[in-house]
Amino acid sequence: MDGNKRWVSGDLQHPDRDPDRREFVAQKQEPFGSVLACIDSRVPPELLFDTGLGDLYVMRTGGEAVGPVVTGSVEYGPMTSGTPLIVVLGHQRCGAIEAAYKSLRDDKPLPGNLESIAKALRPAYQQTVRQGGDDPVDTMARAQVTLTAADLRSNDDLAPLVEKGSLAVIGAYYSLDTGKVEVLSGAPY
To answer: What is the value of pTM for the model shown?
Structure first.
């Protein structure tokens, strides 16, 4: 979050981005966090958290949609090297969320494999319909984050790490307008 404060203020440090760091991580990596974010080109986790080479595992899917391969990729850091943090990062004005919302609302499947994204986002859509609100796409983006973070926090492989306090699974939301990341769920006390 300190890195995000630097991103918002423009006082960037650009840490861990030089030949010495490249040589240091060439043989082994020990990222301090894993980020599951959207594919949106305006939401690069390494930049908006002002991090560098070897600092983060980053997985990106449309609308943070998950399935077995993505979940396995998220589990990799905590289960193999003790990475202590997972952040599920949604964002403002998400095109994938909007497309899935409209597809599900209108019962019109998306073309090709895009439909698999809509299907993966159905629980967030259903929560959004129940919850209501002025901006259903924003509500659905936030719901997707909190549901995905909760699912990861309670899955068979990660739950024991969360319970013993060696892993935090955070749901967060990025504002395109301000650059600020807001924690929605899972913040450790």
So the answer is: 0.95
Q: Does domain 2-185 have CATH number 1.10.260.40?
A: no
Number of neighbouring beta carbons within 10 Å of residue 168: 18
Query: For 117-138, what is each residue's pLDDT tens digit?
Result: 999 999 999 999 999 989 999 9
How far lies 173's CA from each of 38, 48, 88, 137, 159, in Å? 11, 12, 8, 13, 22
Q: What residue spans define the domains of the chain?
A: 2-185
Distance from CA of residue 110 to its chain's centroid? Answer: 23
14 residue type, one letter:
H
For residue 182, give every residue at least 6 positions away whose Cβ sits within 8 Å of its Cβ, in sequence order, or none.
Answer: 172, 173, 174, 175
